[in-house]
Amino acid sequence: MTAFAKDTFAVVDLETTGTQREDDNHIIQFGCAIIKNMEVVKTYSFMINPHREIPLTVQNLTHIHDSDVANQKDFSYYAPKIIKILKDTVFVAHNVNFDLPFLNYELVQHGYEALTNRAIDTVELAKIAFPTLPSYKLTDLTNQLQIKHLNPHKADSDAYGTAVLLIKIIKKLESLPQATLNTLSSLAHGLIRDTSWVFSTIADEARKQKRPLNKSQMQVRNIVLQKQEVHSTVKNGDAEAVFPTNNKAKYSLFKNKINYRQPQVDLINRINLFLESPDQRALLVEAPNGTGKTFSYLFAYSYRLYTNRKLVIATPTKVLQDQIISQEVPQLLNVTKLDLAAEVVKSSSHYLDLDGFYQTLYQGTPNKMTLVLQMRILVWLTETKTGDLDELQLTNYKAPLFVKISHPGDARVGSSFADVDFWNLARQRQEEADILVTNHAYLANHYNDSIWGQNPYLVIDEAHRFVDNVIASRNDSFQFESFWGTLTHLRNLLFYADDSVLNQYGDDVQFNFLLAKLDPAILKLINIINQLQQELYQKRSQAISKNMLPNSNLLLSFQASDLFGEDSKFLATLAKLQKKLEEVRQQTNEILFKLYNETDTSGTDRDAILSEITEQIDHLDFYITKSYQLSDLLQTDTSMNQEGFIVTLTNPADPLSANLSWLMLDASDELKQIYDRFDHLSFVSATLTSEGNFDYLVKQLSLTDMHPQEYVGKSTFKLESHLQVLAVSDLPDVATNQFDQSLAEILEHDLNHKNHVLVLMTNLNKIKDVYSIISNSPALRDFEILAQGVSGSNNRITKRFAIAQKAIILGADSFWEGIDFHDCNIDLVIAAKLPFESPDLPEVKLRQQQLQKQGIDIFKTDTIPRAIIRFKQGMGRLIRGENDRGQFLILDSRLWTKDYGKVFLNAIPVKTNKISLKELRNKLDNYDRRRHKTND
């Protein structure tokens, strides 16, 4: 029996001419589904004449046109019916703070009283009940939860879909443990309108039933968790497991489990041959997408893991890590029957700190975003076996709550949650595991960690990106403006705020003495920061490049010798800063200590000021560390030769707006230190060669002295039957506005049978231009149009693309090679331009300047190989497996007019069809018709 047996829910969805009800916007459709006893018993749908035109964007979204409402009755006719339908019901909507106020506005405008029904919101409820879903848009929720409704974005269909969603939410919440329901109920008062009523009603009803805790769960304090497991150290498998050297034995293992594909078996054998050679240290493997390269290296290495040696796999992305753990390793164990355990290794901040989270539940009233997040986590804790915050699929982790609940990485001893601490349990599982999967950056920063074990093997997956990721993990900055802001805020806390230390304790002689010492010290420290900023600003004429960003920040690139030459006072001033900073930190700490020991707290807000000053001391500690990192860097000749520096001026006319960043230009020493920690290193990717050889990557990866073995694998299927490459020869020059217009016209008129289209560009400003042209195009109304720099973070764009039934991405940079689309089935990839790096980018300018010093031909040995690898990666977005088919379209006519065009053409593994713009639509349509016919 449900807690809501006696309640009637009216689930409402409105379609309107616009979102601002006061701006002559009106309802064009009213949809409603009635729920009684947790079943949808009736639905209503009224088309309503708004007596105005429906904007094109609304027509595209709802498919409701002016002709659909022209002959319908207006709102005054339907208002009494709507009031009658909603009488004595609980008002429900997916974003109730839109639908209810809009409906009430229309009612009041027509002389009726506003509705005062109890009102609840299914967006918040869905986030809390289903905390790990990637999206809470109604269309996405109905897809993910397999709720069928025929016409998304039509009010009647959306109301029905929302009604079924509400029923699923209530059933999920009713299944939660009592302790979780109690805490949710106590937090829920801050939710939208009357949404908290759902939690209090369910919690009250559950108390009457006195349900026992599920056997798979446990309760610590009032938090319910999944019981955790750690691998047994005792292996059940055959400790004498022997690699099946002959192919007949492999065929026997593969039978009825995976397809036996000779190119894949050849790759397995080649890796095994490498592992059998004690004098060989490195192997480079280029294997085409879809050939099972991950399974191949796992299979070859796995038979060597019974000697307490581990295999460490480093990938560039979380998606790949998850894929290896959830798909590839289980497949390996199913085929080989080996008894091996695999774990992901990532930083502690990815894991929930149960102590920190528990404390936040009792720290005052949080803001709405924090409250919903806390409630989501409470439900998630009843399900998660890892405590890995990535499971929540958030698109950013910048909410203030994460500072308090991310695990700091220490061993929890003596706390209530010590035995169930997620980070410590993760470390235990990692200790016991045979295969450890991490990311490039984590490996670069933690290669000496004991977790890898003795003499471990190493596979670098997507190895063409390893160097850039190592470099990125080493890049850092000193934000002088932020530091200055921290000190200003500290002075405010001490002297000027209404509840400042001076105002609260100014009568105390000792406090006065400490404050009198500290204020001039802080002012002196700010003065020293300003000196450092002015010294950087004075060098601006010696910058090797100047780059103005759209936000008006000016980036000045410097070689170390130009910015910190023999005449530079910077290092001496930095030493003064360190000394004064240590002094300010010590004196602030003395005030904090005295506040802690203050006994008379009547009339003071001591706890708040304690918390604030403690936070500022943490900031001071951060800047102390940063200052020593910078001084170490500037005093090491090797580092100075391997680093480039960027001065960012947030106001180009103001010296006191200067901030300093540094980036590694030569990672060779770092890479060699990483390699020394591991044995038999395999570097694997679908794109390691440029112009038919490995020379560029051998040099990039600093492998020359290791004399690596090289292997190019064959495809396991006929690529030409999966991939078609088209290149348009008669488009305008890529640098012109006419080219952007042509690209927009192709997107608007030539995508008739496409579902997922990835447009790869090279300039973020051009992306915005094209987006503005196509975003409201009626021809693309069925597509979700996503643009880098416009539609949120890259992570969010990728998730939306995967979820949407039809979508277009306009992307640059990492969309060529850094983001995985494993579940999207991309139909078409458009390379708008050949992917040359912009020579104006500071990191490119600095790197090329360094190569030029060495007398190296930059274009031939750096620019072209980088562009070729990125180009091949862009093409690789299409064919990730042997079930994928698609078209790769090149719009850059330089492919045919420049000498280097031949290098790109040679990098394409199938025939390139040279076509005119007039032929394009027919070529795209015919391919889709043939493909659909084949699939049928």
Keywords:
Rossmann fold; 26 strands; 936 residues; alpha/beta; single chain; Nucleotidyltransferase, domain 5; 5 domains
Question: How is this structure best described in words?
Answer:
- The protein has 5 domains: 8-209, Nucleotidyltransferase, domain 5, CATH 3.30.420; 261-341 and 433-456 and 678-715, P-loop containing nucleotide triphosphate hydrolases (Rossmann fold), CATH 3.40.50; 352-416, no CATH class; 476-668, no CATH class; 719-933, Rossmann fold (3-Layer(aba) Sandwich), CATH 3.40.50.300.
- The longest helix is centred in the middle third of the chain and has 29 residues, at 509-537.
- Helices cover 46% and strands 15% of the residues.
- With 936 residues, the chain is of the alpha/beta class.
- It is built from 37 helices and 26 strands.
- The mean pLDDT is 89.
- The strands form 5 sheets. A 7-stranded parallel beta sheet has the order 10-11-9-12-18-8-19, sandwiched between helices. A 7-stranded parallel beta sheet has the order 22-23-21-24-25-20-26, with helices on both faces. Strands 3-2-1-4-5 form a 5-stranded mixed beta sheet, sandwiched between helices.
Task: List strands and helices in order, with pairings.
Elements: E1 8-16, E2 27-36, E3 39-47, H1 56-62, H2 66-69, H3 75-86, E4 90-93, H4 96-109, E5 119-121, H5 122-129, H6 138-144, H7 155-174, H8 178-187, H9 196-209, E6 217-220, E7 223-226, H10 247-254, H11 262-275, E8 282-286, H12 293-302, E9 311-315, H13 318-336, E10 342-344, H14 354-360, H15 368-381, H16 401-405, H17 422-432, E11 435-439, H18 440-446, E12 457-461, H19 466-474, E13 476-478, H20 480-496, H21 501-505, H22 509-537, E14 545-548, E15 554-559, H23 560-563, H24 570-596, H25 606-634, H26 637-642, E16 643-649, E17 658-664, H27 668-676, E18 679-685, H28 695-700, E19 709-712, E20 723-728, H29 737-749, E21 756-760, H30 764-774, E22 784-787, H31 794-803, E23 807-811, H32 814-817, E24 828-831, H33 842-853, H34 858-876, E25 886-890, H35 894-897, H36 901-907, E26 912-915, H37 917-935
Parallel strand pairs: 1-4, 4-5, 8-18, 8-19, 9-11, 9-12, 10-11, 12-18, 20-25, 20-26, 21-23, 21-24, 22-23, 24-25
Antiparallel strand pairs: 1-2, 2-3, 6-7, 13-17, 14-15, 15-16, 16-17
InterPro entries: ATP-dep_Helicase_C, DEAD/DEAH_box_helicase_dom, DinG, DnaQ, Helic_SF1/SF2_ATP-bd_DinG/Rad3, P-loop_NTPase, Ribonucl_H, RNaseH-like_sf
Function: 3'-5' exonuclease.
Family: Belongs to the helicase family. DinG subfamily. Type 2 sub-subfamily.
